[in-house]
Design a protein that fits this description.
Layout lengths: L7 E6 L3 H10 L5 E7 L3 H10 L4 E3 L2 H6 L5 E4 L6 H10 L3 E5 L6 H14 L3 E4 L6 H12 L5 E9 L19 H4 L1 H14 L10 E8 L6 E10 L3 E8 L7 E6 L2 E5 L10 E9 L6 E7 L3 H14 L10 H18 L30 E2 L8 E2 L1 E4 L6 H13 L4 E5 L6 H13 L6 E6 L7 H15 L4 E6 L8 H13 L3 E7 L3 H14 L6 E3 L21 H10 L2 E4 L20 H7 L2 H17 L3 H10 L5 E5 L4 H8 L8 H7 L9 H4 L11
Parallel strand pairs: 1-2, 1-4, 2-3, 4-5, 5-6, 7-10, 17-18, 17-24, 18-19, 19-20, 20-21, 21-22, 22-23, 23-24
Antiparallel strand pairs: 7-11, 8-9, 9-10, 11-12, 12-13, 13-14, 15-16
Helix pairs in contact: 1-9, 4-5, 5-10, 5-11, 8-10, 11-12, 14-15, 18-19
Amino acid sequence: MSTSTSPLAWGIIGTGAIAHTFARGLAKSRTGKLAAVGSRQQESADKFAQEFGTVTAHGSYEKLLADPAVQAVYISTPHPQHAEWCIKAARAKKHILCEKPLTLNHAEAMVVAEAARENGVFLMEAFMYRFHPQTARLIELIHSGVIGQVSVIQATFSFRAGFNAEGRLFKNELGGGGILDVGCYTTSISRLIAGAAQGQPFANPTKINGFAHLHPDTGTDLFAVASAQFPGGILAQLATGVGLNQRNGVQIFGTEGSLDLPTPYLMAREGGATSIFLNRAGAAKPEEIVIKTDEYLYALEADSVGDALAQGQLESPHMTVADTLGNMAALDAWRASAGLVYKSEKPEFSFPTVSREPLGKRADAPMRYGNIAGVGLPVSRLILGCDNQDCIAHGAAIFDDFFERGGNAFDTAYIYGGGKQERILGRWIGQRGIRSQVAVVVKGAHTPLCTPEHLDSQFRESLDRLQTDYADVYMMHRDNLKIPVGEFVDLLNEHHYAGRIKAFGGSNWTLDRLQEANAYAEKKGLQKFTCVSNNFSLARMVAPVWNDCISATDPLFKKWIAESGIALLAWSSQARGFFTDRAHPDRKEDAELVRCWYSDDNFQRRERAIELAGKKGVQPINIALAYVLNQPFTAFALVGPRVIAETVSTLKGLPVTLTPEELSWLNLEEEGDGSASEVLVDAGSASAGD
């Protein structure tokens, strides 16, 4: 990263009111200068450029991004356009300051964050209040304990604008309403305060209950309120609106007093004095704390970008990407609770990719592939579990990213979300037109409805939800020992020969039952089980994660898988976070992790994974994944990333190769002194890669 002392050359995308405000502030910046402006109309760009002096005027956003003189861009378009132009700016290697909210929702924000990371550019959401000395003084007061333990935060930002159904403040297609436009400030500052109260940069709410008055014509919120609960017992009351004047400000109540901020968001734009009022318990009157600065508010924001870049940083410590992602998730929760869903987020909407570019596999896609007998196309060794996507926006963002990285296999089940996840996946596949390019794993017949009759009816309903005529793989989600195995084999073959199932198998089936099923099929000349989906991971499953769960990690099971040529689809392949910082003998807050994975032998495996990860230059979780994928049989890992960052970290395990000696050593099967150095055959085996 350059540490040049030359002014940072800025380009502005958009010529609206906030663009003018930023440009006036930038003129007072000590680190940057305005070099260019881009508009969809040349006339608008020319007019803007004339107002601000020697500035290049571009008649399109694309031309501005292609301008080699521009180093950083300020994006001031309406909310729904933020994600597209952030991504295009990142790919053009321009540093990014984007108006709040960063995107329309958290799903889009994940995609933007990953685009910035991959392209090595600065990214920040433009919450200018974060850089004013008043905010720094507020944090100092909270850290000092002058009001005791912070207990309740009240934050309001609301105004009444004249209603215009086509204006950006009200139009649904432009992300209108108060929650996104100014409610984002109330959410942001309360998260900042709740975090400061616990010695952290920010805190994310554990629960949000929101309400909104929606306009009957546009469906956007005229005014809204929310209650938020934070770790440490802190509560927040949030209020916002674009159709109602309210008493704006922030009040913070602690056990020993309170703080009152009359102007928490829009301090003096051109410098001057602002005040915080401290009410000490028992004091006769408030104490006024005056904060003075000669710097322009938006110059402070621009300088935060310039200062970070001068120090080789791609984020500002005062407004990190993680902070933005947390704020977007909180706003999503507020909107969902209040019933505000934008038209573009609804399942029936023809949703494009976040980048607005056609979906396709990237040239540098890191995926590896294997074969499942009967499927007919190479299957990605990572199979994406589709039980964590709660809406089409989130699902599409995760699925698009996985597909672009070479992932083509998706695992779902009849019971997931009462059918929601199957519908989301089916809608995405249909919208993208990629049915022949992906392998869909469908599961059904879960206990207690594990009978041939329920299998048949559930499977047909799953196909309907998925909007497809066939399953690439069908897995019985459980077994029912009371039913003769032949009844299941006969029914599965019926669907197979009808073209509705390409390959089938059992999830959480015992070895004896699998052998019995395939012996029956062979005797009758029928299609056999060609895959099994049981638990398989480096960590031994101490107790079943769910009832009737079965592992395939014992030696006899592994031997049969290898000799039969059956494919293993391993669930909880990374032991549900046991190889991350979530697990430690002294950390017991995750009850499921403790119950299912905590044991002396597993912590030995974990320590060895940590040791080997250090030698190979990866993370322990990558070693855990490599353990599954480097077995002497065909194994696929079911993974369930909730955010794109988890997909990215998981993929780092794909190129890691493990020798048979390393596999044995990790699983406590070796002879010797128990050190990683003893099992590393040569220097080459200590690095990631084939």
